[in-house]
Amino acid sequence: MAGLSPTFEAKLRPIEAVECFEKPDRKNLFLLPGHVRLAEYDLSLGIAQELSGSIGAMKNLPGSINALMNKTAEKYSFDYILFDMSPSLSAINQNILMTSDYFLVPCAPDFFSVMAIDSLARILDKWSIWARKAEENEILKNADYPFPETKLKIIGTVIQKYKPRNKQPAGAFQEWINKINNAMKSKLKPELEKNNMLLPKEKYASAGVEDNLCLELIPDFNVLIAKSQEYQKATFALSPEEIGTVGVVADNQEESRAYFDKIFSSLADKVIKLTE
Q1: pLDDT tens for residues 7-25?
Q2: Fold type of domain 5-220
Q3: 35, CA 20 to 30 Å: which among 2, 124, 187, 250?
Q4: What is the DSSP secondary-structure string of 51-109?
Q5: Is residue 58 within 8 Å of residue 47, measured between CB atoms?
Q6: Cβ contact 125:194 at 8 Å
Q7: In the chain, ranges of CATH 3.40.50 domains
Q8: What's the rounded Cα separation, in Å, for the pair 82 and 59?
Q9: Which of 111, 75, 217 is nearest to 156 (CA)?
Q10: Which residues contact 26 (CB under 8 A, 6 or more apart)?
Q11: pLDDT level of residue 272 (50, 70, 90 thresholds)
Q12: Contact, 212 vs 181, CB < 8 A?
């Protein structure tokens, strides 16, 4: 929030790179915590994004988040900046998404995710039209923090939190997974193609991503998530001592930990391949 205050609170200083926090046990992983008061900027940003052609005093707002991230990335020599976005259609989310290079769609195997994909198909079309107009707007082009060229492409979906059976989704969960994949192909992909938000087909194929754009299926963490939160580590980074079980239970937990390590490594490899 402090990084954006020069533009949103009209302070007489330029945007500067913000301080990030490196995870001691994960070298080169830096965190930038959010702030609940960031939502206070949403109204101002929404007004600026709709009326930027006539309100010159607000011309720096639409490009300010992108400028802040670029300056911070340059300071730390980041390869990737990952945004964990809230599930809302706010002006801030609109701005972050449409000034990003790529996006992932996290899903759960349920009715609400199928509905969300349908909603996303409609809203992405509207947001894409807005972003193209914003990048061509002369006022925003000549702002201190210009609105960037729209380059957004989808990487794919990640379907998570299903109950496994023999390392495969149980029947009821598989039905919802199938519905999500079908919704992606029949509803979201046509809108993405229309708005030039798809990578070339051969790019997905070379990364092992099928036509439904599902990158990985991630089962429920069960008790590992509690340990992950307790030790502030990813599930796959937990040690046997931190998991704290013995006997057959310990063997099962270690197997699960190794399985998650394999899944997340595969996911990371696909993301790198699709974005390089």
Answers
A1: 877 766 788 898 998 888 7
A2: Rossmann fold (3.40.50)
A3: 124
A4: HTTT-GGGTTHHHHHHHHHHHHHHHHT-S-------SS--HHHHHHHHTSSEEEEEE-S
A5: yes
A6: yes
A7: 5-220
A8: 26
A9: 217
A10: 234, 237
A11: very high
A12: yes
What contacts 81, CB < 8 A, 6 or more positions away? 69, 72, 73
Q: Rounded to whole angstroms, what are the CA distances from 147 to 38, 123, 216?
A: 20, 20, 33
Evaluate if pTM is beyond 0.85: yes
30-37 long-range CB contacts below 8 Å, 24 or more apart?
30/76, 30/78, 32/72, 35/1, 37/1
Amino acid at the residue 160: Q
CA distances from residue 93 to 86, 87, 102, 147, 253 in whole angstroms, order as listed: 8, 9, 14, 15, 37
Pairing of strands 153-162, 102-107: parallel
Give me 77's structure tokens.
């020599």
- Tokens, residue 81: 């900046």
